[in-house]
Automatic annotation (TrEMBL):
<feature type="binding site">
    <location>
        <position position="187"/>
    </location>
    <ligand>
        <name>[4Fe-4S] cluster 2</name>
    </ligand>
</feature>
<dbReference type="InterPro" id="IPR013848">
    <property type="entry name" value="Methylthiotransferase_N"/>
</dbReference>
<dbReference type="InterPro" id="IPR007197">
    <property type="entry name" value="rSAM"/>
</dbReference>
<dbReference type="InterPro" id="IPR005839">
    <property type="entry name" value="Methylthiotransferase"/>
</dbReference>
<feature type="binding site">
    <location>
        <position position="105"/>
    </location>
    <ligand>
        <name>[4Fe-4S] cluster 1</name>
    </ligand>
</feature>
<feature type="binding site">
    <location>
        <position position="184"/>
    </location>
    <ligand>
        <name>[4Fe-4S] cluster 2</name>
    </ligand>
</feature>
<dbReference type="Pfam" id="PF01938">
    <property type="entry name" value="TRAM"/>
</dbReference>
<keyword id="KW-0408">Iron</keyword>
<comment type="similarity">
    <text>Belongs to the methylthiotransferase family. MiaB subfamily.</text>
</comment>
<dbReference type="InterPro" id="IPR038135">
    <property type="entry name" value="Methylthiotransferase_N_sf"/>
</dbReference>
<comment type="subunit">
    <text>Monomer.</text>
</comment>
<feature type="binding site">
    <location>
        <position position="72"/>
    </location>
    <ligand>
        <name>[4Fe-4S] cluster 1</name>
    </ligand>
</feature>
<keyword id="KW-0560">Oxidoreductase</keyword>
<comment type="function">
    <text>Catalyzes the methylthiolation of N6-(dimethylallyl)adenosine (i(6)A), leading to the formation of 2-methylthio-N6-(dimethylallyl)adenosine (ms(2)i(6)A) at position 37 in tRNAs that read codons beginning with uridine.</text>
</comment>
<dbReference type="InterPro" id="IPR058240">
    <property type="entry name" value="rSAM_sf"/>
</dbReference>
<dbReference type="Pfam" id="PF04055">
    <property type="entry name" value="Radical_SAM"/>
</dbReference>
<dbReference type="GO" id="GO:0035597">
    <property type="term" value="F:tRNA-2-methylthio-N(6)-dimethylallyladenosine(37) synthase activity"/>
</dbReference>
Length: 464
């Protein structure tokens, strides 16, 4: 009510004045994002695109005219999580007449089956159709439909970030490529994101420059297999080109496949200080037998060779990884090999999950078909995962404890959840809570911080 003009201050109408028509308030879109950084980036692009068609971002689903669920199919129970969320939004649709749309990997996987299963979903669309979202919204007022066709690689146009939408932010994602040409036995990404398509390097560099122009200081280049980039130069060359952009202080990227870790990329970590000493290099298992069934085209020894070359090129680099526990046929010895690899590598973090079969994948088709493809009992897999996670927590705690008393560089991103503190990250991507106010540590500043406390997943410190 605070924006209403008091009655006594309203000007008296003059005879003959035209009667103004009230401006239509912008419609509002609420996006519920599941999963990876690529989905986060896609959600931002969708909101920006709709913003050019009279939509504003809603703070909650309760005030939305359009509810978008941008889904991920990689992890276990993805469909159940989606259905649970849809159930919560059904009431909003009934009360407000809001449109409900499902996008992302589950949408691409389920297609029109999702429309049949959930009758109050208005439309479903895959990642290749994001650019058509405004016209699909209008179409959905008259019919229900699924748009999940693939675009030819030559015709695919990458959604471009709106720099103004990033004004005031310190970090931003920039899409470098999409899709994956590897067919790992456990992974649904080739089925939901399609073949690899690389964005031309001038477009990537131009977007980074535009973001730098509105104050972004750190960019993360993203793609399902980003270091297989072929957009007119190698990925190593792309990193060097982005590093030359004035105003960009830090560069990160994710996600990578070990077989695309080239000598040239290792050299970039050695030579280019703007490329941060942090690398996510998924290994998936410490057992060669399991890696072969997973269709990962490296052995543990080959993985460690790449790992050691990275550590030699950039001493102190923080390397993170992924593990899948309980992959079909995994024996106690296979799991112990994964534990041994974790202890040997001392990963900064590992994102570890119990295997769950994804539709259309080799592992789902072959599960139970032969002794080496036998299902691992759920209880066994969960117990193994708990042991792996406990070891990783111990190692991560020891790594963070080793930072106590050191002075580190922190890029300030903004306020912390704790009153009177600021939040930022070190070059190694470690979260730091800083006892300082905004004047002393403004967003975008790189400040020297003395570490005074090490927690299980973050650090705390004071200005040095």
């Amino acid at each position: 009510m605070s924006d209403l003009v008091p009655l006594s201050r309203k000007p008296a109408p003059v005879a003959g004045d035209p009667v103004p028509s009230p401006a239509a308030p912008p419609r509002k879109v609420y996006v519920h994002t599941f999963g990876c950084q690529m989905n986060e980036s896609d959600s931002d692009r969708m909101v920006e695109l709709l913003g050019r068609h009279a939509y504003a971002r809603a703070a909650s689903a309760d005030e939305a005219d359009l509810i978008l669920l941008n889904t991920c199919a990689v992890r276990e129970k993805a469909e159940q999580k989606l259905l649970s969320a849809l159930g919560r939004y059904r009431e909003v649709k009934a009360r407000r007449g809001a449109l409900i749309a499902v996008s992302g990997c589950v949408a691409q996987q389920e297609k029109d089956r999702l429309l049949a299963r959930v009758p109050y979903v208005d439309f479903v669309f895959g990642p290749d159709n994001i650019g058509r979202l405004p016209e699909m919204v209008e179409r959905a007022r008259d019919e229900r439909f699924a748009e999940t066709g693939w675009m030819d690689s030559e015709e695919y146009v990458f959604p471009r970030a709106d720099p103004e939408a990033a004004r005031g932010r310190v970090t931003a994602f920039v899409t470098a490529m999409k899709g994956c040409d590897n067919v790992c036995a456990f992974c649904i990404v080739p089925h939901t994101r399609g073949r690899e398509v690389s964005r031309p390097f001038p477009d990537v560099v131009a977007e980074c420059a535009a973001l730098a122009g509105v104050g972004v200081r750190e960019v993360t280049l993203i793609g399902q297999n980003v270091n297989s980039y072929t957009g007119g130069c190698t990925f190593a060359d792309l990193l060097r080109r982005v590093a030359a952009v004035p105003g960009i202080d830090r560069i990160r990227f994710t996600t990578s496949h070990p077989h695309d870790l080239s000598d040239a990329l290792v050299e970039v970590f050695r030579d280019e200080p703007k490329v941060m000493p942090h690398f996510h290099l998924p290994v998936q298992s410490g057992s060669d037998a399991v890696l072969r069934r997973m269709r990962r085209d490296y052995s543990v020894a080959e993985y460690l060779d790449r790992f050691d070359r990275l550590r030699a090129a950039r001493p102190g680099i923080a390397i993170t990884t992924d593990f899948i526990v309980g992959f079909p046929g995994e024996t106690d010895a296979d799991f112990e090999a994964s534990l041994a690899l974790l202890e040997r590598a001392r990963f900064e973090q590992s994102f570890s999950f119990v295997f769950s079969p994804r539709p259309h994948t080799v592992a789902a088709v072959r599960l139970g078909s032969a002794p080496e493809w036998q299902d691992v009992p759920r209880g066994t897999a969960v117990a193994r995962l708990e042991r792996l996670l406990a070891a990783q927590r111990r190692i991560a705690g020891e790594i963070l404890a080793g930072e106590l008393g050191k002075v580190v560089e922190v890029l300030v991103e903004g306020p912390s959840d704790e009153p009177g503190e600021r939040l930022g990250r070190t070059p190694e991507n470690r979260v730091v809570h800083l006892a300082a106010d905004e004047a002393a540590a403004p967003a975008g500043a790189r400040v020297a911080v003395r570490i005074t406390r090490a927690g299980g997943s973050s650090l705390s410190g004071t200005l040095a």
